[in-house]
Amino acid sequence: MSITPLYSTEATATGGRDGKVSAADGALVLDLAMPKELGGSGAGHNPEQLFAAGYASCFSSALGLIARQDKSVGKLPEGTEVTATVGIGKTDAGGFGLTVALKVSTPGLDRDVAERLAHAAHQVCPYSNAVRGNVDVEVSVA
C-alpha cells in the first residue's frame, strides 16, 4: 500500500515513560510518568493516554465523515462522543501489546444506524487501519 501524506508531524521523547515528549512545532510539551498501576508515580501522562486520545479523536472524525457521506444521516447528532479505552499487558510471546475498546455514543440516533456508521468508520479510520491485525479492537455503540 502506498500513501502520499497530506500532513506530517514529528514528536520527540526523552527519558522514556518517566521523561518528556514534545512536538517539533512546540504546540505539545508533556511530562511523562509511569502509571501508578504499573508501579510509577502517575504524576504525568503516559503513552497509553496519548494513544487513547489520538485514537478517540481520529475515530470521531472518521465517524463524522461516514455520517456526512450517508444520505440518510447527513451529520452526527450534537453530543456524539467516542471514548477509547487502551490497555497494555504482556503477550504470550513475552513482549507487551495493547488492547483497544472504542465506545460510540450518538444521542438520538437509531442504534442500528449508529452501529452501521461505527463499523464503517472502523474501516476508514487511519488508527484502525494502522493497528488492524495487530491490536484487538472492540467497537461498540452505547
UniProtKB/TrEMBL annotation:
GO terms for biological process: response to oxidative stress. Coiled coil: none annotated. It holds the Pfam family OsmC. Belongs to the OsmC/Ohr family. This is Peroxiredoxin, Ohr subfamily. The lineage of its organism: Bacteria, Pseudomonadati, Pseudomonadota, Alphaproteobacteria, Rhodobacterales.
